[in-house]
Amino acid sequence: MANGVKAIRGMNDILPNESYLWIHxxxxxxxxxxxxxxxNIRTPIVEQTDLFIRSIGExxxxxxxxxxxxxxxxNNDSLTLRPEGTAxxxxxxxxxxLLYAGPQRLYYAGPMFRHERPQKGRYRQFHQVGVEALGxxxxxxxxxxxxxxxRLWDLLGIPDLRLEISTLGNAESRxxxxxxxxxxxEQHHDKLDEDSLRRLHTNPLRILDSKNPExxxxxxxxxxxxxxxxxxxxxxxxxxxxxxxEQGINFxxxxxxVRGLDYYNRTVFExxxxxxxxxxxxxxxxxxxxxxxxxxxxxxSACGFAMGIERLLALVQESDKKITQPVPDIxxxxxxxxxxxxxxxxAEFLRDExxxxxxxxxxxxxxxxxxxxxxxxxxxxLIIGNDEVKAQEVTLKPLREPIExxxxxxSAVIQLIKK
Length: 419
Ligand code: ATP
Ligand code: MG
Description:
Mean pLDDT: 94
Number of strands: 16
Largest sheet: 8 strands, mixed
Bound molecules: adenosine-5'-triphosphate, magnesium ion
Shape: elongated
Distance between the termini: 48 Å
Number of domains: 2
Oligomer: single chain
CATH topology of the largest domain: BirA Bifunctional Protein, domain 2
Helix content: 25-40%
Radius of gyration: 28 Å
Strand content: 15-25%
């Protein structure tokens, strides 16, 4: 396409030879969530920029450098393509007063946008399924969310995902931790990279999340939040671990687990694979008890997680559970002209019976039509010529087995196929 317009870098087309996997995944997702009583919520892809700044936090990778923000020149509003779903979900719950009716188990799925360097497992438009339990103080709901994930990995046939959990404590313990961190990093001022220096006094917790290998040693030695943890958060974390053990969920405690968004407190967790290189986190979440108040609602506890669909599908494709592209049951080959009307009626009849049928369009010889039938992967060809119309029959030819074709009544086709 020399002068043609191309898609935006890092934003992918999902073509038919891949989209069936997405459909398969989405069907599993909706059933899986219904099984736990979670209900779907759909919010706009664009929000006021302020929503994300207030929720995700000003000094985070997402807000500092990854957001697609633009001015709507028709009214000068600053708008942003959503980089994640929790903020929008919280906004909608507040705006429509959903918590008035009691706690809510909600989920959403759809595209998110972050201006990152595109690479395998990292795109500028990517897709998430997010699950949010709002109005629950936990840790029972924290456990439920993790148990749900575990079931999903089974449903998808993804083995060997590692669960890491940690706790970030409450606002006071984080404030105390923050002071200790600043003191520690100030002592190692000369070893901090540019990003970390900038964040030292604004958001020192973010330094712990640095991906710079040269920073890892000094991060390793930094004070740990667990030592500053408040009593209630400690009990919450203990209780979560107890419940997870009771449910037979394996986990590791990773006290260095820092999430890329500021709104988390207490429980945080990630599901990680070793099979996707650096992009190993397929699902991440935690508690965000302060967020709803922060974006203008009445204070309410909440917990949730989001998973990256591209990364999960990459794992599904690698797993043993082979998911094959669906093929039509029947491809109807016909003589055209007057015969077409009969062929058309046959096709609709078979569709009424629940079969997937392609009716050949575009003319051509029987031979070329048979080639097309074969190429679709259809199980049967249904051949209709003048003789068939006269006898009010059809000729059924199995395409995938060495069985002779047979002329039968249309109603008999159903029995033959289902057999
Ligand atoms: P990472 O550390 O990989 O950048 P993150 O902490 O920014 O992830 P979250 O905001 O927690 O990610 O999003 C939840 C999940 O969404 C991630 O675990 C990942 O599976 C997926 N995800 C996040 N960013 C991208 C992206 N740019 N492309 C594809 N998937 C993504
Ligand atoms: Mg990121």
